[in-house]
Specification:
With 447 residues, the protein is mainly alpha-helical. The chain contains 18 helices and 7 strands. Strand 6 and strand 7 form a beta hairpin. Helix 8 packs parallel to helix 16.
Length: 447
């Protein structure tokens, strides 16, 4: 009796069903014949030229196409996560959204790193390379990736700005007279190089990065400051017009021991002390404030108006690449604008905020050591022309809690800001509210 064998193979595991499956599903979602697929271009360092398209990013045209490809992803990121939007992980965003945001940021930085490798392999030093390096630097700061920030800074310093100023800018000229042809011009001999306007904010980012990464030590900061190219040092020392607006960039008064003998307290006579005239003065004043732990002065030095003038407004092409926001119209007006965000200014702001957070932590540790208990509603004598203020207002100024309604705000807003801060500290076991009748506004600080 002939036996029959039953074919138990499942569709898709062999035979015609497997060969027909890809046709049924259609083309690969990325690969399309005849088109350059940016997603699949390997980095120069990983391929060593052996893989297919392994040297593609060495080609200038491909580099420019790849930059536009990255920009589409950057635009999608800003639409999903605006700069002034809620912070993932708190409020409207949950842990899953925060994780997705971080993964998107890391992928964007990887794409920029691949493009930087292509630029470096060709030693490309032009306006396009400068834009790639600077955008990569700004995003690495905003995405809180110190490793990528350090890597990008190594491309720009110490000599990139000097080389691009020599290759892309014509030297200054002086008028000369000619009997035959009339007035003419000729290049000035030994004229100093003129770095692009973006060199100043990038230099500030370099120095602030070292202040943040090595806090509380300032050795790396002063070492890099003294090692800067003389042209960049001169650029740092050039005076800039102060930002306009009421009390823009004003700095709280120094304590009597910080003022020279015979100096007059400007607040006592009803005037605001002038802002540091140059970026160098602002940086060194900020470093001195952190070193001497005069944290109450951070309020003026770290306000946006104190350093906004050091970041030139982006041109039309740069503004088109900046994230745009519909909310926060007052902030848009403060930037002069149309809703476009200047990434260089935002990166400086991010580093300044990190410095404030570190200084706030040091101040908080000192307060917990010096005081066992605080009464937020109590009135205490204040320095200068302030007369008196509540303990809450003093703490808000010392901890630089202006973002939540602190320094320079009404006592009620300062009370809310400090109590919100203490609630967060209480969750970490560093403070607790004093219970009982008549104990409103009293907190015990846990050492």
């Amino acid at each position: 009796m002939a036996s029959t064998r039953r074919d138990t193979r499942r569709p898709g595991r062999g035979g015609t069903s497997q060969s027909q499956a890809p046709k049924a599903r259609g083309q690969h979602r990325i690969y399309q014949p005849g088109k350059r697929h940016m997603e699949l271009i390997p980095s120069v360092s990983r391929s060593s030229g052996l893989d297919k398209d392994g040297d593609a990013l060495r080609d200038q045209k491909v580099q420019e196409e790849y930059r536009e490809f990255i920009q589409t992803k950057v635009d999608d990121y800003w639409k999903a996560y605006p700069l002034r939007g809620p912070v993932p992980g708190s409020g409207e965003y949950g842990p899953e959204a925060a994780r997705h945001k971080k993964e998107t940021e890391e992928n964007l930085l990887i794409l920029f790193r691949k493009l930087r490798e292509g630029l470096l392999s060709r030693q490309r030093r032009d306006a396009f390379a400068l834009e790639v390096y600077e955008t990569s630097l700004h995003l690495s700061v905003l995405f809180k990736s110190p490793v990528q920030t350090t890597s990008t800074l190594s491309h720009l310093f110490p000599n990139f700005y000097m080389s691009i100023s020599n290759s892309t800018r014509r030297p200054p000229t002086r008028p000369v007279s000619s009997a035959a042809n009339g007035p003419a011009t000729q290049p000035l001999e030994n004229s100093p190089p003129q770095p692009p306007p973006s060199a100043l904010p990038s230099t500030l980012i370099l120095l602030l990065h070292h202040l943040v990464s090595s806090y509380p030590s300032q050795l790396a900061f002063y070492t890099r400051l003294h090692e800067l190219h003389p042209v960049l040092q001169r650029l740092l020392r050039e005076p800039h017009a102060a930002a306009r607006g009421p009390s823009a960039g004003s700095i709280p008064p120094a304590s009597p021991k910080d003022r020279p003998s015979g100096a007059v307290d400007a607040h006592a006579v009803g005037e605001n002390p002038p802002t540091p005239p140059s970026a160098h003065d602002w940086l060194t004043a900020l470093a001195r404030c952190l070193r001497r732990r005069t944290y109450a002065r951070l309020d003026g030095l770290t306000r946006r108006a104190a350093f906004r003038r050091f970041a030139p407004a982006p041109d039309r092409e740069q503004r088109a690449r900046c994230p745009r926001e519909d909310q926060d119209q007052d902030q848009d007006q403060d930037q002069g604008g149309d809703g476009g965000r200047d990434l260089a200014l935002e990166a400086i702001q991010a580093l300044v905020d990190e410095l404030v957070a570190k200084a706030r932590g040091t101040t908080w540790r000192a307060l917990r050591t010096a005081y066992r208990e605080v009464h937020l509603r109590a009135t205490v004598a204040a320095a200068g022309a302030r007369g008196s203020e509540t303990t809450a207002a003093w703490l808000a100024r010392s901890l630089v809690l202006r973002g939540q309604g602190g320094a320079g705000r009404a006592d009620g807003e300062a009370l809310d800001a400090v109590e919100g801060w203490l609630e967060v500290r209480a969750a970490k076991g560093e403070a607790r509210r004093k219970e009982g009748e008549g104990m409103e506004g009293r907190w015990i600080l846990v050492k």
